[in-house]
Amino acid sequence: MNLSFFIASRYFRSKKKRNFINVLSWIAMVGVAVGTTALIVVLSVFNGLEDLIRGLYGSFDADLKIEAGLGKSFEASEGWLDSLSNVEGVAVLTEVVEDNALLKYGDDQIIVTMKGVTDNFLDDHRFSTGNLIGDKTLGTDLVPKAIVGRGVGYFLGIDPKNEFEKLRVYYPKAPRAGTLDPRQMYNSGILGFGSFYSVEKKFDDNYVVVPLSFAVDVMDYGDKRTSLEVMVSEGQDVEKVKGRLRAILGDAFTIKNKDEQHAGLIRAIRIEKLFVFITLTFILAVASFNIFFSLSMLAIEKKKDIAVMLAMGATEKLIRSIYVKQGAIIAFSGALIGLVLGYLLCWLQQSFGLVSLGVSSSVVNSYPVEIIWTDFVWTSLSVLMITFLASYRPATIATKVNTIEHL
């Protein structure tokens, strides 16, 4: 066994009854353990929230979204769409026409984002996460139906059982010069009710999904589309499929994966996680001040031992190493306990949902957590850095003992 480590471990395991320094060392170890546990748990909660958001948005968004690089829409011929559908890895290609419109039900009305889609929009696990109440159908060309966000439905007071009241859509258009008839300033259409969906507030309060043919007629889009949504085949790499599509589309179009479609939100969560990590690391550093105090007091108490070791030929490097390793034993013992406790708490939350969100209508009943091994690595590195900073000064003081004075 390394000599400096052997002496440091003996100091740590000292069984003297009235040794306050050892009590302080154990308090420091507990402080590090609690701080490490809190750090792992909080970071895992942020991971869980990020994963939950991906899952919620993923049930509404496609794996890849193709949009025009410039402008709001683009021409989409049948042959061109077929060439994209035949790209390796493309399972479902959905045509989309999306724009704001006025939705009216009875005497109530609201501005919504009307999303016209082809029938295959409902394929490949759409709305698999969240709630869908009613028929998962968009009706037919003759009797089109809408899938309405829960927030929109609540605002309009839609009654699914009322088959006589219909949804009315109004979309503005450029009137002819000299036209005074207000009916020439908008297009309108009538929709039946299909179902309510609840995925995420952003979608629930704004989006209404309708058949593509209905949206094209009301908005006068013809062969134009605002976007194309691609579902990637199972087992295919999304980024590789994106590269194949990029080779065909060139720079005239943008292709976004799920994270890029909500880049601002994902970035905000990661920045918040970073600042929480920094804040808790500072708290962990404050808890580690006990290491500094216990080592400083140990260096004062053990001056005679240090003098004897120096007289026997010990170098300053050995003395310094003893105290640095003493601090490492305290910190890493606490960190190991904290890492294990943090992992166990997160595993229990994942398996049994111990801490509830307290919201009965929530998509998930308990706080989501996800354990990522890199969090353990960064936490361990933080403890290593804090330990070195807390131990170095007391270790340096211990080497300044006057051998003759303390023998």
UniProtKB/TrEMBL annotation:
Cited InterPro entries: ABC3_permease_C, Lipoprotein-release_system
Stretches that traverse the bilayer: 20-46, 274-300, 327-351, 371-392
Major place of residence: membrane
Family: Belongs to the ABC-4 integral membrane protein family. LolC/E subfamily.
Localization annotation: Cell membrane
UniProt-recorded name of the protein: ABC transporter permease
Annotated ranges, domain ABC3 transporter permease C-terminal: 278-401
Membrane topology summary: Multi-pass membrane protein
Keywords annotated in UniProt: Cell membrane, Membrane, Transmembrane, Transmembrane helix
